[in-house]
């Protein structure tokens, strides 16, 4: 090295250290907090909805059991299940005391789908008979209407006058 040469005394360019991803900038912290809050709220909402629909799942299980048990009295058990479901869905109203025709009218008004059509006029007598004569087509229609009502009824119904 030549002491008189000033270029010999220069050192290489030093690059600055890489920018670290941690700690996060305040804007990212805010975004993480908002995202975590939204995720928590959405989880709470989904759990609440799942729990609120428990009565529907239990009613569907009961109807499935009724369909699989050929010795069961289908008609009384079906309407007992429907009344229990209605009492769970609308706790402020008492459907257990309604007559069968009034109860069917309520179910038809609380669902957008057509339900319980072409029922026999003596349905209330058949409901309380010891051995009701129910043909398979009517039993299938009753069960399918019950399933539709359980799945699609609206819990926010305008109060009756």
List keywords for this structure.
mainly alpha, 161 residues
Strand percentage = under 5%
Mean pLDDT: 87
Main β-sheet, in a few words? none
- Integer-rounded radius of gyration: 34 Å
**Oligomer category:** single chain
H/E series, N to C? HHHHHH
Helix content estimate: 55-70%
Separate helix tally: 6
CA(first)-CA(last) distance? 107 Å
Low-pLDDT regions: none
* Strand segment tally: 0
Helix/strand/pairing class, anyone? mainly alpha
Q: What general form does the structure show?
A: rod-shaped
Word description of this protein:
By secondary structure, the protein is mainly alpha-helical. It has a domain at 54-152. The protein has 6 helices and no strands. α2 (54-68) packs antiparallel against α3, α2 (54-68) runs antiparallel to α6 (136-152) and α3 packs parallel to α6 (136-152). The N and C termini lie far apart (107 Å). The model has no long low-confidence stretch (mean pLDDT 87).
């Amino acid at each position: 090295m030549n002491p008189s040469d000033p270029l010999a005394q220069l050192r290489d360019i030093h690059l600055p250290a890489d920018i670290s991803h941690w700690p996060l900038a305040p804007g990212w912290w805010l975004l993480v907090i908002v995202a975590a809050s939204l995720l928590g709220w959405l989880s709470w909402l989904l759990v609440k909805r799942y729990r609120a629909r428990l009565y529907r799942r239990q009613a569907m299980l009961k109807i499935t059991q009724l369909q699989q048990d050929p010795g069961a009295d289908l008609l009384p058990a079906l309407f007992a299940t429907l009344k229990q479901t209605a009492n769970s869905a609308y706790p402020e109203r008492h459907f257990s005391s309604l007559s069968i025709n009034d109860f069917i009218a309520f179910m038809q008004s609380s669902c957008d789908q057509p339900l319980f059509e072409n029922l026999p006029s003596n349905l209330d007598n058949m409901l309380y008979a010891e051995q009701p004569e129910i043909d398979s087509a009517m039993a299938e229609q009753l069960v399918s209407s019950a399933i539709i009502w359980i799945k699609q009824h609206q819990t926010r119904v305008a109060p009756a006058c």
